[in-house]
Here is the input.
Amino acid sequence: MLFLPQLLEGAVVTIEVTACASVLAIIMGFAAGLARLSRWWIVRAVTVVYVEVFRGSSALVQLFWLFFVLPFFGINLTAFEAAVLALGLNVGAYGSEVVRGAILAVPKGQYEAARSLNFSHSRMMRRIIIPQAVVAMLPPWGNLLIELLKNTALVSLITLSDLAFKAYQLNQATFRSTEIFSMVLVIYFIIALGMTGIIRLLERWFGRGILYRGAA
Amino acid sequence: MIVKWDFAWNILPVLLKAAITTLEATALGYAMALSLGLVLAIVRRSRVRAISWTAGGIIEFVRSTPFLIQLYFLYFILPNYGLTLPAFVTGILGLGIHYSAYTSEVYRAGIEGIPQGQWEAARSLNFTKLQIYRRIIIPQAIPPIVPALGNYLVGMIKDTPILSAIAVVEIMQRAKIIGSETFRYLEPITMVGIFFLLVSLVFSAFIRKVERGVSMDRRIEKAMEIKG
Here is the structure.
């Protein structure tokens, strides 16, 4: 318990990185997921390249690339910026598939009904399609954001003093490995539980007013 | 020109040699994840509540905590109990344990997909529990879940660079060593990225092929069911 205050300091950084990267991931996920359904092939092509590159090469490699390689192009990011950017872009690429799948899963009749009511395309997406798709995409997004939380441990390897970094440092200083790493695992587990709880609440909030048809 | 092509060409053999370590760690870790995952899935189905809950708890815990920390846990704690393993072995152990939590869920889905009648028929033929699993359940449960298991293989390859954190000299660690010796990170890290991109694209294409094969078998089976 001696180490708890220092570990909690690290946990705050972990939560900050998770929160910022999650926001970026959701923005990228929606942008890329919608862009995949674009009418223009060039937009679709660019999106496919983004998604494949970020899903195909490892998250740690992306993190190192942003932190160690970008300076060669004259772009110097802080460890925190590189962390948020790498994790956000990585999870956003996975999220785009979730968004695309959920939108495609909305029944055709919904599009036809909206069009027959003379909705414009953007209004139809905003008012009819996306609200229904969001319900279906919440559980997979929940899983992705938990993955994101777990991947934040990697930012310790680019010297950001998150929970994993503090644990490593304390271990080097005191050699009380069992205590330190057990506590850290439990702290991550608790954060993950908290996130799962929030996602459950969101599921209930977005799912209100929708009759259960076994779809969501 | 920012990229030094001759430098990239020079470090290519060294990186490829380290890539073999990456692939070895993946292969061994995956073998462990496949077997341990099956054991966990079966243990979780135990009728003794204490056993199934413990297995479920372990799976949930391993799935919700970072792989890097689990790796540190093994690497720093095992020696305290007199078990000093080479970093490479610890890495494989870590990959195997982490991914067995995921594969066990896949196996569970596969096993739960088997119709109840199969269990009843096997039991009525006086098969022992072990025989039922080995001869009846597992052979039917595995084929439909091959694609899902394959996806975790791709996932695992992309997690092997994390072994560099405990100084396993796989491709990422090699790239970092080259970077720190030459002060050029651009080429080695970019090449590592391209390596993982190629490997995962090839594997994903292969899995899609298998997936099509599996669903094709299923379609044939269904057609025969209707006919027969």
Remarks:
- Chain B has eight helices and no strands.
- The helical segments of chain B are 5-44, 49-64, 67-77, 87-112, 116-124, 129-159, 171-182, 186-227.
- The two ends of chain B are 69 Å apart (CA to CA).
- Chain B touches chain A at residues 2, 61, 64-70, 72-73, 76-77, 80, 157-162, 164-165, 172, 176, 179, 184-186, 189-190, 192-194, 196-197, 200-201, 204 (CB under 8 Å).
